[in-house]
Design a protein that fits this description.
Layout: H1 3-7, H2 16-37, H3 43-60, H4 64-87, H5 101-123, H6 125-129, H7 146-166, H8 172-189, H9 193-224
Length: 225
Amino acid sequence: MNLYDLFVKPYENYSGIQILLEATGAFFGILSVYFSIKKNIWVYPAGIISTLIYVYILFNFGLLGDCMINVYYTAMSVYGWILWSKNSKDHVHVEVSWATNKERMFAGVLFILSLALVTLIYYYKPYIDNKFSIEGASLGLYHLDWANWLDVITTSIFLVGMWFMAKQRIENWIFWIIGDFICIPMMIFKELGITSVQYLVFTIMAISGYLNWKKSLKEKSTIKS
């Protein structure tokens, strides 16, 4: 696979509007991560714009299963926005901390439930992508390749990461780093070169976010002591 096949060929049949929409969604996705690093509540408005754009794109491509997952991302962003608004003194920035043992246990349960939910969505994906018609659709997981199974895992990782972020817990970055890194080869396999580069950028930004939030908490602890 050469660079042309990876970065140009997949977009040859796209319209100008489709390319613009995907680029806009990617831009707001990166902007959302930037705001998150800065502990700025604008992480959520930017993230909601990005996920809603992808909801529209995926719906129009008939990928309703993936579309539903992005609807969940949007709902989680609204939940996070509400929590950050309540916990922000200046209504813009928030304080961060490590998760409690109870929260980590809950995150483990959430991860398992997310695996089950996403696997269930993939099981019914032929029915969902067939515009909710069972006629001609064969249910099951037979259509999944290794990239799809990785997608099940990374989606669950991201859902837990979003929950930790909503709670302003530093652990959220660990989940973003792992999930984003896994997505790089997965997107190359799907011949989505531009998206793979985007996830590379996300991985680097997530590492930066992890270090930034740790430093912020350490500085706060030093001031208090």
